[in-house]
Specification:
This protein has 412 residues and is of the alpha/beta class. The protein has two domains: 106 residues, Urease, subunit C, domain 1 (Roll), CATH 2.30.40; 289 residues, TIM Barrel. The protein is 33% helix and 22% strand. The protein is built from 14 helices and 16 strands. Strands 1, 2, 3, 4, 5, 14, 15 and 16 form an eight-stranded mixed beta sheet that branches. An eight-stranded parallel beta sheet has the order 6-7-8-9-10-11-12-13, with helices on both faces. Helix 4 packs across helix 5. It starts with 5 loop residues before the first strand and ends in a 6-residue tail after the last strand. 50% of the residues are buried. The chain binds zinc ion. Zinc ion binds next to loops.
Length: 412
């Protein structure tokens, strides 16, 4: 039997986000209503214009702001063990590289993840995904990359797919075995990539459609990244890259050359590189939380991305070392402040920007045909969540027309 339509009424502001490009995607409807049939939006309009004979289950949101579910286009949320003990090391002034050399950093996460059971990894990641939902994120890109062996990386991709099918969140798996050079390969990044090209990439299409690599001076060079990503493309996979996180290393130009879905981080990417990316329709996924958390004082030039007419997405980079969070909403005021973005630009970056970067046109917007993934906010104006920080303003979250999270906000 068909489920009854869901009628969301008395929406103070409904962010529909329906424009066709990055400069006009933001759109808002005041005093609105939304009708959902099955898992998709069927109708949006003014509350007073609801079709008269329409029958369904009514939800009255009493003047609240309703937005699309947030789209986090960049995370590494599948891992074992936190790294909270590194706070003390950072307080003592030790750098990321010094912590790595002391046996901490990414390679310690790799050791813990390799020895964790499937069940342990699933349980820890489910908790992170639940917190993501509770903070308004309904679509999460999730990369593998904390095992760095062929069998182990395929296990991580399998676990990501299991979480994807479990739901209620939407997960986009990305294959990122080329995340770091594992200890066994010492100083031989090229040898490690040869091993992945031979034994790993041919198996990836069963688990993921996209391959990612950490293209950064001192990790994987532009030349080696090109060879690796071309091998992925020859298998029908799409590509994206981590670029210019610590220096302008030419990775953005490689993303353009290869027609990547996105180039991510872009903290040191030049204005000309952003122009070439916009021209080639390569989205820029910026991760201000990482730059802020590491306190290295260098933010991506988001204004240059928008000035060039490119798609700008903001991601959490959720990971245990440089950005331990799953809340994209938390970053909205910081993105406004640190990247000098308007409320409209922030909203576009966490909804349509994310969907552009992931190649998922039916998330991040609320108009007929889109997935009914939406958030009811403890706010009556859309500027509020881009201004007020550190408090979870999410009241209710829906995925595919079904309520999946509720913050009671009760105090006793
Ligand atoms: Zn990352």
């Amino acid at each position: 039997m068909e489920k009854e339509p869901l009628i969301v009424r008395h929406i103070g502001q409904l962010l529909t986000m329906i424009g066709e490009n990055s400069s006009n995607a933001f759109s808002v409807l005041p005093d609105a209503a939304m009708v959902i049939v099955g898992d998709a939006v069927d109708w949006v309009g003014l509350d007073r214009d609801i079709p008269v004979h329409l029958q369904g289950i009514e939800v009255d949101v009493d003047g609240a702001l309703v937005s699309p579910g947030l789209v986090d286009a960049h995370t590494h949320l599948l891992y074992a063990q936190d790294r909270a003990h590194e706070v003390r090391m950072r307080a003592q002034g030790r750098s990321y590289m010094e912590i790595l050399e002391a046996g901490g950093g990414i390679l310690s996460t790799v050791r813990h993840t390799r020895s964790a059971s499937d069940e342990e990894l699933l349980r820890a990641t489910r908790r992170r995904l639940s917190r993501a939902l509770l903070s308004g994120t309904t679509t999460v890109e999730m990369k593998s990359g904390y095992d760095l062996t062929v069998a182990g990386e395929l296990r991580l991709l399998d676990l990501i797919n299991r979480l994807k099918h479990e739901g209620p969140w939407r997960i986009v798996p990305t294959a990122m075995a080329a995340h770091a050079v594992p200890e066994e390969f010492g100083q031989d990044p090229r040898g490690f990539l040869d091993y992945l090209i031979r034994d790993y990439l041919p198996k990836v299409p069963a688990f993921a459609e996209v391959v990612d690599i950490f293209c950064e001076p001192g990790v994987f060079s532009v030349r080696d990244s090109r060879r690796y990503l071309q091998a992925a493309q020859s298998l029908g996979l799409q590509v994206k890259l981590h670029v210019d996180e610590l220096a302008d290393g030419g990775g953005a130009a490689l993303a353009v050359e290869l027609g990547a879905l996105s180039a991510d981080h872009c903290a040191f990417t030049s204005r000309t590189a952003f122009e070439a990316m916009a021209e080639a329709k390569v989205a820029a996924v910026v991760l201000p939380g990482t730059a802020g958390y590491l306190n290295h004082g260098h933010m991506p030039d988001a204004r240059a991305v928008l000035g060039a007419g490119g798609w700008l997405a903001i991601g959490t980079d959720g990971n245990p070392g440089s950005s331990p969070t799953e809340s994209l909403a938390l970053l909205m005021p910081w993105a406004a402040s640190w990247l000098r973005l308007t409320p409209e630009e922030v909203w576009t970056a966490v909804t349509r920007g994310g969907s552009a970067a992931l190649g998922m046109p039916w998330v991040g917007r609320l108009d007929p045909g889109a997935y009914a993934d939406f958030v009811v906010w403890e706010a009556d104006h859309y500027a509020f969540p881009t201004y007020y920080y550190g408090t979870n303003l999410v009241r209710e979250v829906y995925v595919g027309g079904r309520r999946v999270a509720l913050n009671h906000g009760e105090v006793f």
